[in-house]
Fold each of these.
Amino acid sequence: MATKDEVLKALSTCIEPELHKDIVTLGMVQNLVVEAGVVTFDYVLTTPACPLKGMMQLEAEEAIKKVAGVKSVKINMTASVKKDARLENILPPGIKNLIAVAAGKGGVGKSTVASNLAVSLALDGARVGLMDADIYGPNQPQMMGVSGYKPMADADNKIQPAENYGVKVMSMGFLMDPDAPVIWRGPMLHGAITQFLKDVKWGELDYLILDLPPGTGDVQLTLCQTVPIAGSVIVTTPQSIALSDVRKAVAMFKKLNVPILGAIENMSGFVCPHCSKESKIFAEGSAAALKKNWGIDLLGAIPLDPKIGQASEDGKPIVLSHPDSAPAKALREAARKVAAQVSIRNATVKPLEIKLVKA
């Protein structure tokens, strides 16, 4: 009959495609039992949003079936998100990874992308929070369907965030008159962002998505200097003028030692609501320009579809309201690629390699 050592040897031929090491060495094979020709084990991925989950399971099954004496294979696909080691003893407690969603300019759909990324990760089984750090234009309450929420402090003087679609949400939009302008200087912005990190009861989260304001200002500086950010996702559109603003965001994050996980191109093409065909209405070639000029990989290209805007207005992100649409599928795939990039970074970057930059 097959032995445990033989099964482990077979599984050691399975290479994790992102980390380029075998799954046994990486500790991804756990609770292995070989009994009467039946092999069972837990396959522990680095994220529940793994984009190659199905392929990896199939590869492991095929490898085990080659072992003499194996009659059947039962694999429990699970996940354990690794914590950014630099977050130890640093606020906010209980959060494993902070991911910034940024844009060099406004109007590119950054907040829409942020909300859909958060919901997509939650749909894949991750514990997710969404912090609306866009103080000047807090749109997440409406986009996430929690615009009427009034935050309250508990007995520990911690603010309870709103929650919808499996995502915890905190926004300045909960605390301010929606018709009043935000005319704040740097210290006031710093105080608000720090309170969102310190005094909100986020609980245990695999990912906290930070929806940043457009551009390169005080909020970005405060966040990058206060907490270690696992990486940033830059949202852009295909126009050359939008790409020219990307370089400013790239330069800011590099100066602040924040890794860039990749870019998401929004409005990559127009999807006709009548025939469902996609037409390119902006210039093409942004993916090549991102790679050539800044070494940034494209994580996803989201087509322009009227349903996206309507979903945001209705407070139900398109990955939920129209899950089979082209934009929803592209956003789900982009979220998985973001999670994969965070896993790669956590497995390869040492805690002391990146330090917070002080102005």
Note: Residues 326-348 form the longest helix (23 residues).
Amino acid sequence: MSNIHVSNHPLVAHKLWFLRNQETKPKKFREIVRELASLLTYEATMDLLTLDTEVQTPMGIAKAKVLEEKIGLVPILRAGLGMVEGVWELMPSAEVWHIGIYRDENTLKPVEYYNKLPIAPTVSMCLILDPMLATGGSAVATVDVLKRWGVSKIKFVGLIGAPEGIAAMQKHHPDVPIYLAAIDDHLNDIGYIVPGLGDAGDRQFGTA
């Protein structure tokens, strides 16, 4: 479990309360998802490579650093879309690549329906964005796609994870670090995280 990172930041815990609250409306829900994405990405990018450089300040020359790695954001449609803006606020130059994967409600297995990745990778590291790591099927399938694409440095950034989803990721992709705001108790018989926060996509887009 050394590559499982659960934030202990007070702001993360505070904002997670709003997401769990069934009374939180879609507008507020989207705002909190965006804010939590920023906070968790801050923690997930502590090891980004930088280059030493200099910059002219009003008072002289200062030593500085700039990012060396080119970052790609891969939101799992559709719930992951709400996390993109939060990450972009930190890294506005990050590329965004969409991979469409949905969970079959009968089998709970991932089904890929959209993929427009270029032939060769254009980034050196990818952050997979998805609020809920439930069964882990979509996350595992997305990592499969990215590795076939040729990206070797991949991280998963989510909000809430279930032990079952974490175990699936650990089994299939133990090299992919997972960053979460919380780990919940279990999945119910229809694949939802308990206590969780419901369907993150429906709650963001008002389609419950």
Note: The helical segments are 10-20, 26-44, 81-88, 137-149, 163-172, 200-205.
Amino acid sequence: MRDLDALSVDLEAALIRELVTEYTWANRVRFGTRLKPAVIALADATTRHGRWVGPARTIELARTLVLERPWPEVIGVLEHEMAHQFVDEVLGVRDESAHGETFRRVCADRGIDARAAGPAVPTTEPAEIDRVLDRIRKLLALAGSPNQHEAEIAMRKAHELMLRHNIEAARAQADREFEIRHLGDPHKRRSRVESDIMILLTESFFVKVIRLPVYLPRTGTRGSVFEISGTRPNIEMAAHVYAFLLATADRLWQANRSDKRVRSGRDRLSYQSGVVRGFREKLGAERVELRGTGLVWRGDAKLDDFYRARHPRVTTRRTSIRLDGAHAAGREAGRSVVLHKPVESSGSGGPTRLLR
């Protein structure tokens, strides 16, 4: 194990205070303040992320977890151990296995991951979903064609296939598992371009999105990330679209700096936001056309329930958009964007393959 560059006394004290604050919030919101406050401690364990120690009334979190893993995962493990505390001290259930029926029910009711603490474990996809994903991958590969007409047709077919598959799954009320993924560098300030992409993902790619504040233990500062929720195939697609649009908006900005509607470098975010808006309008127009074939997306009640359990208190904020010439130029460019499969890299440092 590599040197973890232990925190200073002040940073470790600040970290513990932050964890206590998170514990207090979860106790109030998820457990109705029924938990008697426990001691939060850091441990040098290397074989587990965390544990509830009943006799000592302590929740231990591994230093490797809090220093090396993203903050949302740290909080996920903390809440997982709080669920163990609830089963032990509030419900008094001690004749079941650690992750038995009562524990799983407590977690499900509160939007807590009942599986082994740590990152979400991918589930095994049924063969039918595998076939659908394979067809979508092939269509996205065709959408990379230099022939604009062929590329547009391939993207539209991929869009239709994704829509049809999700409508059928929601109508059948199939027993699906939902997962989460976090996007964005917490050390960087979130941009309006990213926010625009998140709106597009919620509208057209069958995921729920929320912006989460995160704590950065090594610096004692705060940042934020986006959390997307959905089925694993939809999360994979949404993560690809996020990376694709960020790269495409930047590429188009660099290619069109000479546009007379772009006055200076300060117009970059306005232009890139316009690119995302233009692509969003393009997808919206395709969705309207597909309604004529009977494909109407009415939402996914099960995903809504999963999202509300994870985030019982959500604050919505509205932001204004400056509709200037640079934004209009970006929208024009965005309407010609064709979503396609990313180029696969054969070596390090090149483009990464986001769809597998």
Note: The chain has two domains: 9-110, 127-334.
